[in-house]
Each structure stands twice: as C-alpha cells, then as structure tokens.
Design brief:
alpha/beta; 28% helix; Rossmann fold
Length: 183
C-alpha cells in the first residue's frame, strides 16, 4: 500500500488499484523524484496533470506538497474507483478525476497551462504512443513546466518532440525517470 511521503497529508495511506495492469511508483522512487521537483521549485501552487494516474499517488503527493490543482487521468475502471476513493478520503477538493484516454485528455483540455506533467504509463506502452502523448502535451504546457516520464530502466529514452527537451535523467533500480521542459 502506497503512502503520502511529505506535506499536509504526510503518512496517510492510499488505496491500491486491485488486480494487474498498474505499476505503482515505489516510495523510494517517489521520495527521490519529489525531492528533485522541490529543488526545481516545480510543486508550489502548480497545476498538475497525472496521466495514467492509477491510485493517484503522484498527483496526490504533489497536492500534499503544495500544488494548486491536480487532474488525475485514467481510463481503467479499477483505477478510477481507486482514484475516486483516494480523492474522497483525502478530501482533495483541488483534485479532479477524469475518465479518459491520456491522449484524448490532452487534446481536449482547455484549462490553465500545465506546470507539472507526470507520464507514468504502463511499461508496455509503445514508444510511438509515448511520443504522440509528449507532442500533444507541448501546447498545453506553461513555459516553465516540468515534464516527468517514468519507464522501465530498459526502455529507451523517449523521442522528445519539437518544443520539449530533456534536461535530466535518473535511474532508480529498475525504474528510469526523465525530466524535460519546454524549449
């Protein structure tokens, strides 16, 4: 069971998505990732979009650490039930759950520019699908946005579309994380 590591909801446990098909981010990876995001000043008052949200662990951690609003996006019914449960449990009025395909959500979105984007897709997601998601995100991004892509350590680096460039990467055991920003 995942937990919130820091912030206003520190220590609270999150319901997990039952069954297969989701791969929760380990607490070790999450702690390192969020420490880095705090150094980048990417959390305070940020508009966050968490694609392939699963239980909402990344988006709700961002809320706990000072994000203004988080959009939790998933299309799998077990994940959506878990997301709604976790949002209700946390009384997270600054979180919205979206039942939608990630690409469609980015193409239809007309809210405030994204300041922090999490892409933690299933490892089986094809590279061209990931590239399409990144390309669809570019027009949605705030000029100072941070994009975080989490994949299996054996995955190749994403193909960054025009308008987005990697500025850092980190390996955590079997997990690889890339950080990108608008160029």
């Amino acid at each position: 069971m995942a937990r919130i590591i820091a912030g206003t909801h520190k220590g609270r446990r999150l319901a997990s998505v039952p069954g297969e098909g989701t791969r929760p981010t380990s607490d070790r990876v999450k702690e390192s990732l969020f420490s880095r995001l705090e150094v980048y000043d990417a959390l305070e008052d940020a508009v966050v979009v968490d694609l392939f949200a699963g239980s909402g662990a990344l988006g709700l951690e961002a809320l706990s650490r000072g994000a203004r609003h988080v959009e939790l996006v998933d299309r799998a019914e077990p994940a959506l039930r878990t997301l709604r449960r976790n949002v209700t449990f946390f009384e997270a009025h600054r979180a919205t759950v979206h039942r939608c395909d990630a690409l469609r959500h980015l193409q239809r979105r007309d809210d405030a520019p994204i300041e922090l984007l999490f892409l933690d897709p299933p490892y089986a997601l094809e590279e061209q699908e990931l590239t399409a998601l990144l390309a669809a995100a570019v027009p949605q991004l705030h000029p100072a946005a941070t994009v975080v892509v989490e994949r299996d350590a054996r995955s190749p680096e994403p193909s960054w579309p025009e308008g987005l460039e990697r500025f850092q990467e980190r390996a955590y055991g079997t997990t690889q994380v890339w950080f990108a920003e608008p160029s």
